[in-house]
Amino acid sequence: MNANMLDPLIELLNIGGPVVWILLALSVISLSIVLLKCWQYFSAKVEQSAELEASLSAWEQGRYDEALNTLDNKQAIPKLVRHAMDGHLANEDQNILERELTRQANQIIMDLRGLLKPLEVIATLSPLLGLMGTVLGMIEAFQQMQSAGSNVDPAVLSGGIWQALLTTAAGLAVAIPVAAAYAWFDRRAERVAHHINDSVSRVFTKFSANNTPTNDSPTKMVNETLHVA
């Protein structure tokens, strides 16, 4: 039963030729990347910020112990924020603290954007591969028409054309969902970068015992680096 259901698909793959088989391989690769990235985003819980918001609110109100105890050290962003809080309470050198926080923030964003470049490449190449398959198929169809001379069978020509167009359809079928997945993951990474920047900025702007902001601008390096990442 299953074999009979797969027969039409295998027939289409054989008709499309090597280009369709390449597109099938690219679709398998892209699906694997999408599933891996979904697991990464949901397991890391990078956008669940209820506890982080409560911690930052306590920090801004001067309840430093409560702010530290509220954070979950197992998650990347709360761990980064706790490092910023601990650094201020320990009176660490501000420049050194900035550089370390920037390094950790960049690492978080780079991890989230890992494997997105292959998705972008697949989304770009798939329609081009489909178009190439169509061009090659059309060339073959017109060669057959030339070889037939005056005895051209329109059915043969039309059959060759739809077979050639099959590769374009396959290329678009792969490219459209991959492009959508890439845009979604990239947008989420941008949101996480903004979330990190906002959280670290709130820690830096109010850290003294009397809750008064400083005249320095310690978040400048973090802002610039996150925009580049």
Written description of the protein model:
There is one protein chain. This protein has helices at 2-16, 18-44, 50-60, 64-70, 76-89, 94-113, 116-148, 154-205, 220-228. The chain is an all-alpha fold. Helix 5 packs parallel to helix 8. It is rod-shaped and about 90 Å long. The relative contact order is 0.15.
Q: Could you provide a short overview of the structure?
A:
The protein has about 230 residues and is mainly α. It has nine helices and no strands.
List keywords for this structure.
82% helix; disordered C terminus; mainly alpha; 229 residues; rod-shaped
Task: Please outline the helices and strands.
Layout: H1 2-16, H2 18-44, H3 50-60, H4 64-70, H5 76-89, H6 94-113, H7 116-148, H8 154-205, H9 220-228
Helix pairs in contact: 2-7, 2-8, 3-4, 5-6, 5-8, 6-8, 6-9, 7-8, 8-9
Tally of DSSP β-strands: 0
**Secondary-structure element series:** HHHHHHHHH
Query: What value does the average pLDDT take?
Result: 80
What's the total helix number?
A: 9
Helical percentage: over 70%
Main sheet overview: none
